[in-house]
User: What shape does this take?
Amino acid sequence: MRSILAFVGSPRRGGNSDILVQHAAEAAKEAGATVEVCYLNEMDYRGCQGCLGCKRGDACVLEDDLTPIYDKIHGADAVIFASPIYFNDVSGQMKCFLDRWYAFWDAEYQKRLEPGKRGLIILPYEAGRETMYDGLLERHIGLLRGMGLTDVTGFTVAGVRHKGDILSKPEALAKAAESGRKLAED
Ligand SMILES: Cc1cc2nc3c(=O)[nH]c(=O)nc-3n(C[C@H](O)[C@H](O)[C@H](O)COP(=O)(O)O)c2cc1C
Assistant: This one.
């Protein structure tokens, strides 16, 4: 059975990022995976402190709500990242979380994560232009491959502002479900 960890970078429970993750999670569960969803805004953690403790030792030395998450990521087969676009980037919650992935490199910048893990990035936003954040998506796909995920995909969804706007975009919900299903496949 494949295990999937999902991180929601929006502070809005029931918002567009959350709904997309729920669709991906439900489809993955139907395909036999286990899914745990983590709401970053409800967790107590700081961004990377740049102390390089993870280079002197073998793990991040900060002790906070991300401490148990490192082991969960080591144990997961796939990781989902969903974040609204805030000021042309991922949310601050997601950015601080991703900076903490620095601990997945050792002192020689070798990857600490076992190869073979999948990743899925989902980025909803308000602006209407469909390709507007393709570059941002590609940058994060590259970043996560560099951090040690092997097979990373993702998609953006334009034109969603209010909580639940995504429900009027069945093609985006279907894409989330299909992506979730793929994470659960052998
Ligand atoms: C602080 C803030 C900054 C935002 N910046 C952008 C932006 O740069 N581009 C954009 O298209 N939408 C922007 N938005 C709109 C959100 O991306 C949009 O409402 C999204 O659907 C929210 O997702 P959620 O429901 O998961 O919270 C911003 C919203 C907020 C609150």
Observations:
- Residues 5 and 112 are 18 Å apart (CA to CA).
- The longest strand covers residues 118-124.
- The chain has one domain: 3-184.
- The helical segments are 16-30, 53-56, 67-75, 92-99, 134-147, 170-184.
